[in-house]
């Protein structure tokens, strides 16, 4: 059970229970420890080569589908990915029912891996991906006369794959498996490669989007009294004028970014599990007391952040109301980009001030080996490339067309500010993640204990309620004054950036995509090219905001 696993992770481990790794290339090593290290490196190398070959094979299939749709069709790509999904399902089931239940299989559990917000993201995006597949099955079933059977089978296997993988990651993301090392590494790398290929297909495959777009154009052409299009395949496979079909279409387009987000989050969690295979955690690596999130010591950060969230929610609702009823007006785009132009400089200034305070502090750097933190740094840098890349594409398109126009100048300013904000925030978060945690003061702990004891010994009546609120306020102010000014400013900045990143995550995640709907870049690059750019950059941008929240909360707690 999980209680036994966690207890065994914290208890001292008997050396007789340790399963040292073996590999046939290093069977003649002099010491057991040296053979174990070499076998671990060889296992990582061979499993990495397996993933690389699977990714290259899948990429070749997807590229061939894009450039030569006659030889390799979308159905062929779906068949390949279905085979990979089934293989991953077999391995995950074997891990759940076999590997993890072997004696001394999970002697250690990585406390840094599988944070609750990461596992919560897996569940949230997994449920949205399941709904996406349900909508795709419903849409293909309605048009079964002109759709292939594979278009129903592929999302059906996808639902089973998502459910099994989400359960696996929720319960076993912290495991440092000590048995069947090479087989586990290969299984994890195969699952990572499958998720990467699913993400690549979602980024490049615009078949259904083009189909829906062509149907809308056909309807507009008929309403305008023009002759119907000469392409018979569009009219043969047209969604009937029913509410259920429109719901499937709209739901598919709305939930499409969640699927790409799900693949990216799963890849990050699986990579940490892969790094933790065979890892033995020493006692000084295990934290005795986990830092807890407390709201005490911050005033201005929550106030400014809440204001940013409320204003952003109003802008988002205004945009969504117009986007769902008809094409968004120019005024809505101006309001949307103006909000970003005001908020992004404030976030950048806060990150720069936080970085300067980190430089002024005399805190030691945490140099202990931590795969989760190393991955956090890589993910922050890599995910930021999505928004930065899209911004540069927008800058080139706008400068080459008409940068003097009001809307174009707003989008241009937004793109430049977004690049600067991503860079400054990355520097602040990465620097904060490598700082050691500041131990809480003894006075603060004793006063907190006294307050708890006094509260537990006495029941609060209605008449004493005002007095208790007054005492709580005085205690809050006293705690705020006890913090040094550097820690206080760091907490204010971190909390403000957390709330800002939350609203900047909510807006594109739940449907606000002006970068595609304003039509500027789409007309410059063309529909298909800009579709690939947006589907590459937008999920990375959403993932970056979500991952930044986790990093900023860590900086806030350790300040």
UniProtKB/TrEMBL annotation:
The keyword Membrane applies. Pfam families: Otopetrin. It comes from the Eukaryota. Its main location: membrane. InterPro entries: Otopetrin. GO terms for molecular function: proton channel activity. It is found in: Cell membrane. One of its GO terms (cellular component) is plasma membrane. Keywords: Cell membrane, Hydrogen ion transport, Ion channel, Ion transport, Membrane, Transmembrane, Transmembrane helix, Transport. PANTHER family: PROTON CHANNEL OTOP, PROTON CHANNEL OTOP3. Belongs to the otopetrin family. This is OTOP3 protein.
